[in-house]
Design goal:
Blueprint (H helix, E strand, L loop, with lengths): L2 H11 L6 E3 L14 E7 L1 E2 L11 E2 L2 H19 L6 E3 L2 E5 L6 H14 E3 L3 E5 L6 H10 L3 E7 L3 H7 L6 H10 L4 E8 L6 H13 L4 E6 L15 H17 L3 E4 L2 E3 L13 E5 L4 E3 L3 E5 L3 H9 L5 E6 L2 H13 L3 E3 H8 L3 H14 L3 E4 L2 E4 L1 H28 L5 E3 L1
Bound molecules: S-adenosylmethionine and iron/sulfur cluster.
Length: about 425
């Protein structure tokens, strides 16, 4: 664990107490009073495994996938029944893996969810480019999907080859997106690949918006220690230059920045599974964030099914937050949207942001990381870069460690950071 992340954690939580995740877990999740809650469903199967990918997934097998979905639906009933009446939630997000491999069962999953939850802002699904078939998209749309996110990674063959993926054809994507319309069409790209230039990324951004996207996500390449990827990471200076050029280019085109990595060409095009105050996660590796608790489900499909068969939650690790820990968690993920609204913070914690983090905000302003207008703190270009830099650090220090352990051990005893 790096000294920087430990020192930052101690400073911001005003405590030497580490973040401790243990295998003891609540059989009942208390989410009655949570506001602005999202739902996440994980489907961990792919037709081909990409060496660079850190997510919980395995090779697709129709029978195993079906058995998994049966358990997933049981988990939804198990958790849904913990609340009386219907609970309002903002969104439902299907991620993976490649969740559209279970296209025949998406409607059944949505129906189970809708028995317990009222979804107010639409249903999203992650798609692999090979999912872009007319019948599949029509099926997804008629099941209730309103937003799609396609894992393009790059329109450039050279980078697809580097990533070990098949080339994508912009013309055929454009044709199919014209035939089946969705409210939000987002496309994922990876940047900071070896020798990637601003011209390469500009080309990707332009192609995305001309072939039917109204939203893009440009993620920096992260080299997780437990993946088999041999791709070299880009030097910090070069990465910063690229990030600034991409951001300035998107601003020059008047695209809205909705989060640190995402831009859209109209206000209604929103797509993010990250910026929710609370969320309930279903399926392997899915996480749940409540007012005082964070929990993560087992990464093992077999163990997941066994737990559900016994009518118990598939929770592997849980942390009960101290108030300061929860505040840091809140601020870290809210900052992902590039803005922190002090009124929202006060509504959530019933105490003022300035009172809790006045010195930190003052220093962040002094160093030019943020600006303030009427209680809303916005990240500057410099602030966004350093947030990105710190997030990268956080990902490699916390997520890399946790996912690395959970891939090997279905129910670890505990993890401390
Ligand atoms: C679950 S995948 C997307 C859906 C689909 N499975 C696909 O591959 O097209 C989510 C996204 O995470 C991003 N991603 C995966 N591994 C990454 C890595 N090592 N660094 C940065 N981004 C990564 C990719 O942009 C990918 O589209
Ligand atoms: S990037 Fe997508 S297709 Fe590749 S292994 Fe990860 S989830 Fe599967």
């Amino acid at each position: 664990m790096s000294i920087i992340t430990t020192a930052t954690r101690m400073w911001l939580t005003k405590s030497v107490k580490p973040f401790t995740f243990t295998n003891t877990y609540d059989e009942k999740l208390k989410y009655d009073n949570e506001q602005n809650m999202g739902l996440y469903v994980h489907i961990p199967f792919c037709k081909q495994i990409c060496d660079f990918c850190p997510y919980c997934k395995e090779l697709y097998n129709a029978e195993k996938c079906d058995e998994y979905i049966d358990s997933l639906i049981r988990e939804i009933h198990l958790v849904g029944n913990m609340h009386k009446g219907k609970k309002q939630v903002t969104s439902l997000y299907f991620g993976g893996g490649s969740p559209a491999l279970a296209v025949d069962r998406i409607q059944e999953i949505i129906c189970a969810i809708e028995l317990y939850f009222d979804i107010t802002e639409g249903i999203c699904i992650e798609l692999h480019p090979s999912d872009l078939e007319l019948s599949k998209l029509e099926r997804l749309k008629s099941s209730g999907i309103t937003k799609i996110s396609i894992g393009i990674q790059s329109f450039n063959k050279k980078f697809q080859f580097l990533l070990g993926r098949c080339a994508v054809n912009a013309e055929s994507i454009s044709k199919i997106l014209n035939e089946v319309k969705f409210e939000t069409v987002s496309m994922d790209f990876i940047f900071a690949l070896p020798n990637q230039t601003f011209e390469d990324l500009k080309e990707d951004i332009n192609t995305a918006f001309t072939c039917g996207a109204n939203h893009i996500a440009i993620y920096p390449f992260i080299d997780f220690t437990f993946t088999k990827s041999k791709i070299k990471t880009m030097a910090k200076k070069q990465k910063r230059k690229l990030l600034d050029l991409i951001t300035e280019y998107c601003y020059s085109k008047e695209y809205r920045r909705d989060s640190i990595w995402t831009f859209s060409n109209n206000e209604t095009a929103k797509y993010s599974s990250m910026t929710r105050d609370n969320f309930l996660g279903f399926g392997c590796s899915a996480t749940t964030l409540l007012n005082d608790t964070f929990k993560i489900n087992t990464f093992s499909v077999e163990e997941y099914i066994k737990r559900i068969t016994k009518h118990t939650l598939p929770t592997a690790l849980t942390i009960k937050f101290t108030l300061r820990q929860r505040m840091i968690y809140y601020l870290f993920w809210t900052a992902y949207s590039t803005k922190i609204d002090s009124f929202e913070f006060e509504k959530f914690f019933d105490t003022s942001l300035k009172k809790m983090y006045g010195l930190e905000l003052f220093l962040a302003k002094l160093f030019g990381f943020i600006t303030e207008k009427e209680g809303v703190y916005s990240m500057t270009l410099k602030g966004a870069f350093y947030y990105h830099y710190y997030e990268n650090f956080y990902t490699l220090s916390y997520i890399d460690k946790m996912w690395g352990v959970m891939r090997k051990n279905a129910f670890p005893h505990n993890i401390r950071f």
